[in-house]
Structure formats: C-alpha cells, structure tokens
Amino acid sequence: MGVDKGLLDTLNNQLLLLDRESGADAIAGDVIRAIAATLDMFAGDRSNAAILSHLIDLHDVMLDMRPRMANVISDIQLMIVELKRREMDPNALRERLPRLLEWKEERKRRAAARVAAIIEPDKPVLLHSYSGTIDTALQIAVERGEKPVVFVAEQEQVRTARIVRSLSDLSLEFRVISEYALSHVLGEIGIALFSALTLNADEELIVAPGSANLINLLGAADVPTYVVLTTNKWSYWTDDASTTWHEIRKKSIAGVGVSKDIFSHDWVGLDRVTALVTEDGVLPPSEARKAYAASRADFAEVEREIKQLRTARAASMAQVRLPDPG
Amino acid sequence: MTLASVGAEVVEHVATPLDQLIVLLIFVSVFAGIIFDKIDKAIVSLAGGAVVVLAGYLTFERAIHYVDFETIGLLLGMMLLVACVQEVHVFEWIALKMAIASRGSPVLILVAFGTATAVFSAFLDNVTTVLIMIPLVISITRGIGLNPVPFLLACVFLSNIGGAATLIGDPPNILIGTRVPELTFGSFLEYMTVPVLISGALGLLYLKWANRGIRSRTRDFPWLFASNLMLEQIRRQERELHVPASVMIRAGGVMAIVIGAFLAHTWLHLSVAMVAIAGAILMLLVFGRRVDFHQVVHHVEWPTLLFFSGLFVVVGAMEEVGILERVALWMVSITDNTLVLIMLILWGSAILSGMVDNIPFVAVMIPVLQRMMKSEPLVSDGSSHLLWWALVMGACFGGNATMIGASANVVGCAIGRSRGVVINFGAFARTAIPVTLITLIVSSVYLGVLYAMHASGVE
C-alpha cells in the first residue's frame, strides 16, 4: 500500500517539532501513549489482522520520515512482532504497552546512571541540546551532593530554554555562552555531553543542528566528548535515504532574495567522539562498532518478519480483488 | 463664523450649512483614513480631532468635554485586567485544557474552541481572545492533518457573536453602555443572552455543515493516531505551563468580584469605568509579585485609547454644528413605525459595520439615537429602547460579514497569515455572509418578538 502523503507530512512535522521542543527521549514515549490511546478509541475493525495491517502502515510511514526515528520504528516493529508471534488480540497488546514504557524508562535510567558516573563536581559540564537522559543524570549527581558548573552553548531558543529551565530547577550554577564563541571557554570545560537522534549504518551520529561543529571543536581541543544514545535508537538500514529533513526556503537577506537550505539535524562521525554512553556502558568508538555489529542480527530478523507480513497482506488483498471465476 | 484660537473662550455662533459641510468632510476624511488604513487609525482620528479644534469648531475645553473618560477608563481598566491575567497564563492554560478535553476529535475541537472563544469574548476584548485561541487552534488542527481555515473562522465569528453578550465584550457595546445610562451591565445580559446563544449555536451548526471534512476519526486508525500524538504534545505543554491551582483560584476570584460589581454597579453607585479600574488594581495587587508591572502596562493598547479620544472630539464637533440633529430628524421622518425603525437600524448598522469599522459608526449613531428618542413619536413609545439593542446587534453581528468588519477579523486573519494559513477576502466572505445572515435573522425575529410582547403589554 502506498504511504498517505498527507499523513506522512503531518506526522513528520509533529515529530520534528517534538524533537525540537522536548528532545528525542520524549518522542518514543509519546508515540507509545498515542498508540495506546488509539487502540482504546478505535471503533473500526479490531481483528488481529486489521490492527496488524494498520501497524504495518504506521511502520511504513515512519520509515518514510526524515530523519528516521529508529527508536519509534523499533517500538512499532516490536508491537507488530508481538501481535503476530503471540496471535494477540489488540486488547492484550494494549495491556502490554505500559510494560513497554516502563522498559524504556528503565533503559533510560540505566543510561543516566552511566552518565552520572562520568560527571565529577570539579569538572564543568558543557551542554548543547536538551536530553531527558542527561537531565536525569544531573539529578542523580545533585542527589549525590555533586554540583558541577554547567556551560550551556546557546542555540535555538526553544532548545536552550528547556536546558536552562531544567538547570534552574536543579539549582545548578550555569553560564550561557553563544555556540558560535565557545572557543573562548574551551580550557574551562571538563566534559561535554551531547544527545543524538541515532547512530546509522554509515557510522554517523545524527545530532541537533550545531552539535557537529561543537563536537569537532571540542575534539580538536581534546575535551572529553560523550554522546548519550541508548541502543534502541541505533538504526541499521543500509538504503541511501537521506539522514535528515531538508527544505529550501526563499527569504530576503539585506534586501536580496536568497534560497536557504534548512536541515532539521546535523551529523558527525562516530570517531569524532570520546565515547557513546549507552544503557550497557560507556563505549569508545571501537567498542561501539562491535556492539553495533552484534545487534544487527536481531534487526535483520525483525525486518524479515515484517517483510513476510507485508507480502502476506498484499497476497491476501490481491485474492480479495480477484473476480470470481465462476 | 469666527476662528477661535486654541484654549480661548468659545465665541458663540450659529453653525452655517458651510460649517456643517466642512465638519462632515473632516469626519468623512477620518472615516476614509480608517478604511484605507495607510496610516494608523489612531493618528487619523487624532488628526481629525486636532483639525476641528484648530479650525475653531470646538474649543480645547469643549473638545475635552466630548472625550468620554468613562469609555476610556473602562477600556483601560479591562486592558490592564486582561493583561495581568495573561501574564500568569491563565487563559493559555484554559485553552490547553479544552484542547485536551476535545480528545483530538475535529467536531469537539470546533465546538469547544468556538464556544470558549464566545465565552471569553463576552468578558475580554475580542482581539485578546483571538490572540489566545487562534495560534493554538492552528497548531492543533495542523498537527492532526486538518485544514485550519474553518476552525480559524469559527473563532473569529464566535468572538464577535460572544462579544455582543455583555457591556464589556465588544467596543461598540462599551461605547453604547457607557454613554447610555439606562443600559447597564445587567440589561445587556438580560437582552443579549438569548440572541447570542441562538446565533452562536446556529453559527457552529452552519460551519459544521459547510465543512464535511470535520467529522469523527474513530474509524480511521492512522489519523486517530495522529490526533492522539498531537494530544500528547498538548498535555506536555499544559504540564510545563506550571499554572498552580492557587493562581487559578485567585484570578477566578478577582474576575468573579469584577463581574459581580459590573452587575451591581448601579446599586453600588459606581461607574463601570471605576469597576474596571478597581478590578485591574485588585488583580495587580493579587499578582504583584508574580507579574512584571511594566510588561502589563506594555500590553495596554494605548493607540486604541488615543483613537477613541480623537474620534470623540470629531463626533463632538458634528454634534456641536448640528449635523447629528439633522441626521436624527431625517431618520425619524422616514417612518413613524418603531418596528420598521428597529429593523432599519439593525440591518443598516449590520451592512455598514460589515463594510467599515463599526466603532466610528456607532460613535455617531449614539447621539443620533439619543436625539431620535427625544422626538415624537418615539418619546412616548415604550418600545423605543429596542433601538439600542438593534444597534448593538447590528454593529456586533454585522462586523462578521467581511474581513475588515471587525478588529477580531483583521487580527485573526493576520495571525493565520503569519502561520501560513492564508484566507483571501472572497474566501472569508463566502463563509462569513451566511453566518452573518443567520445572526441577523435571529436578531430580527428576536427583536420582533420583544416588540410584539411589549405592544401586547407582556414585557
């Protein structure tokens, strides 16, 4: 079935806005709660086959989004596989969704604990884009009685505002510096913490706009730079789909009409960071590569299953359309 | 005619037809300046006021006499009150709560936001109401893949309809209510609640009927999911707004006191302006530590207050030279049937309000109606007060007819345009005219029933 373009654009815009305003961590939770509410309210055909079909459609829409939200897609894949393997009815699936949310929160807490372990009170921390996991890690540090000074590299106001509100709530001392002038305080930064949307098959970390430049700058100055990214956000597709949402807009600068390229995200190579912080550990690039390769097999298995389901559905619909030979 | 210098004692003179023509031309120029909107209307009206004084048609003292400080005070008080409540995000919180209660249903979004806009508009100014509602409506409807236009229009139309319900809901009502002593806050509620409720309900029904795409999505899995995803974001926005219950209680308490004082202002021997100003001061005292007073004052629309001031002076000059007397006599000469006059005022006001800014029109009609009511046969006709309600309904409801008919229309469409929702004049009118006709038919029937009840001694 072709993807509904209107639905694709609507959902893509919603998730981009959510990522911008609340960070990548918020996206997956909202999607699961939205699916739960949908299962509650849906008044159409509630058979296993019908719900399976709808989830496959949703999965395909998510695949067509840019950037791809790997954690969201993997959650929907999980639901599809559960429905199929266990022959579940939608009500049973609905009852399992809170468990899925708890599992994600547990994963996030474990990752936050890993981040908190590398925060030291005498090493100022640099933040750029908001992350719920980093926020939780700072809370853990504060509860331990450690209050590092925080530098906030200021960027788009909605993203910086979120970080500032969070730091203010934690009563942490912080300084805001423009992201364009960070070279002046490089010597004062102990560690830098970034979040990412995903790690893809080209070993690219998809990050917030501006983060790539900062990561490169910090790397050149030998400042330990960590990217917080739980393993459920890793993506394994090898197609040549673009990594980010891209639009060209006409605007006027100094009275001159120009075309401006707008990208929703930036990217930086895995080798540019000191380590990835996952729920399973703090992984330098070499270790991260091994972990990535090891988890690829699971992804391939799920992809095969979904492909089979898609084929079976198409065959079933073709049969329905065939005229009665009698 | 002698030319008096500014501030000098007036030299009594009888206005000649030439004086009347010149003053009329000044007024028409001001009107045209407001319509064509090349420069701010406040500047236009102040210029008109300055010209009539400099030309000697009014002394400075007489000009000040014509500036109705009751109206200015009421406007100022309400602006401060609303600005203070906006600073503590109460209206935003209510709008978000409504969005959550709608559960992403297109029909409920239309009804909830339309109704809330009407209710808010009855007690706040219409422009503030659309400034709060329309951005959220666009965000929600876009977020669930709906065309925002019908919802934006619903907010605009319902703001004008709801604003007609109370003395403070709409600038024409404020003008009429402050200058006509027998029209109190209570009498506005008494006479306007029924036509506003019926017009609002029928208006929403029409919008639903005219937009078949506004229907339930509970059988459409993917779009239902999109609606629910949007709802999650709205829930997050509502949580992050951090509006404590104590803030809601305090704001609600002060508003209740203010509305109570409006209802009882004649018994309390308080002017409505004093109620509004005292209410604003009370709200500022209650939230003094939570809001930035300078930010509150910044929200006051000083150009609007200056616009009214200049307009009062120009209309005062028209009174001074006898233009309004002539208009009143002419209108009474058209017919001696009060019911016909009522309908003429209703439909005439509506047509003019749709075409031009209704505030200058109402500012002129108030002294005209006051004069008409002093002349035979109206002075002895107990139903002549219905002319005021005809003016209120015509001015408020008629403002819905075109994109420029009311400030809420202009501001609402501007907000839409800034967010990529473009509505042209024709598209606006195609929906607006049927809605306006519905409200005017309701008003005609209502006024006719009231007239008949009075004639039979029931009212």
Structure in a nutshell:
The complex is a heterodimer of chains A (326) and B (459). Chain A is of the alpha/beta class and 326 residues long. Helix content of chain A is 52%, strand content 17%.
In words, what does this structure look like?
The complex is a heterodimer of chains A (326) and B (459). By secondary structure, chain A is of the alpha/beta class. Chain A has helices spanning 5-22, 24-41, 48-64, 70-85, 90-118, 132-143, 157-169, 211-220, 285-321; strands spanning 125-127, 150-154, 174-178, 191-195, 198-199, 204-207, 225-228, 246-253, 256-263, 266-269, 275-278, 281-283. Chain A folds into 2 domains: 5-107 and 297-321, no CATH class; 108-295, 3-Layer(aba) Sandwich (Rossmann fold), CATH 3.40.50. Chain A is built from 9 helices and 12 strands. Chain A is globular, with a radius of gyration of 22 Å. Chain B has 459 residues and is mainly α. Chain B starts with 16 loop residues before the first helix and ends with a helix. In chain B, helix 7 runs parallel beside helix 20 and helix 12 packs antiparallel against helix 13 (272-286). Chain A binds chain B through residues 4, 6-7, 10-11, 13-14, 17-18, 21-22, 26, 30-31, 33-35, 37-38, 41-44, 51, 54, 57-58, 61, and chain B through 103, 142-145, 218-226, 228-233, 236.
What's the SSE blueprint?
The complex is a heterodimer of chains A (326) and B (459).
Chain A: H1 5-22, H2 24-41, H3 48-64, H4 70-85, H5 90-118, E1 125-127, H6 132-143, E2 150-154, H7 157-169, E3 174-178, E4 191-195, E5 198-199, E6 204-207, H8 211-220, E7 225-228, E8 246-253, E9 256-263, E10 266-269, E11 275-278, E12 281-283, H9 285-321
Parallel strand pairs in A: 1-2, 1-4, 2-3, 4-7, 7-11
Antiparallel strand pairs in A: 5-6, 6-10, 8-9, 11-12
Chain B: H1 17-36, H2 41-54, H3 60-66, H4 69-87, H5 90-101, H6 106-123, H7 126-143, H8 149-163, H9 171-179, H10 185-210, H11 221-240, H12 245-263, H13 272-286, H14 293-299, H15 302-320, H16 323-334, H17 338-355, H18 358-374, H19 386-398, H20 407-418, H21 425-455
Helix pairs in contact in B: 1-2, 1-15, 2-15, 3-15, 4-9, 4-13, 4-14, 4-15, 5-6, 5-7, 5-11, 6-7, 6-8, 7-8, 7-20, 8-10, 8-20, 9-18, 10-21, 12-13, 15-18, 16-18, 17-18, 17-19, 17-21, 18-19, 19-21
